[in-house]
Design goal:
The structure is a homodimer. By secondary structure, chain A is mostly helical. Chain A contains seven helices and three strands, in the order αααβααββαα. The two termini of chain A are 28 Å apart.
Chain lengths: 119, 119
Amino acid sequence: MRKDTFLKNAKSCPAQYVLALNDTLNVFTGKWKLPIIGTLLFDKKRFTEIQKNIPKITPRMLSKELKDLEINGVVKRTVYDSIPVSVEYELTDSARLLGGVLDKMLEWGLQHRKKNIGE
Amino acid sequence: MRKDTFLKNAKSCPAQYVLALNDTLNVFTGKWKLPIIGTLLFDKKRFTEIQKNIPKITPRMLSKELKDLEINGVVKRTVYDSIPVSVEYELTDSARLLGGVLDKMLEWGLQHRKKNIGE
């Protein structure tokens, strides 16, 4: 059934379908985006908190990746007018739905690994 | 609910979880793998048939990609002892389940695009 839906979409509007798949793939591409999204799935965090959660990421890389994710509508950045100013990062509503996609990918990866390497 | 499953998996066995996600991502990575899988979702095909379905791919690239997919347990290659010898490519059972993953990715990409660009 799943397959039918996919094929139907793919056939009825190929251009939009390729765009949508690429949008999703782009969110995962690169070394750091997935760990950052994972860290923010629980709740909003400050820059240094995110950094602590992701071993080996440099502040410079984290800053760049967060900016990318913000531009792509995955992360929302909020500046609080406190002293000192504090900045918090959280997932957008749209990005929270990524959990379902990750689940499906995980499920497939596990069964595929079992079939191909477990045998 | 989806999110909970994902988080549970991620927390209980992070190493296996990262491996499984990477397995799935690797199947999609690159310019040609997704079109090749899409072409084979319907039924088995011969090399030249696949080539006709994918504009701009060179025989050399197609051959390389098919070999990669075969090694990763996504594509199955069968040689028929006919004259002349004929070779057919088809998706493995595991790869057929990718339809469900693609559906989820597509769904997310479409809603994300609508929210971020449609607004």
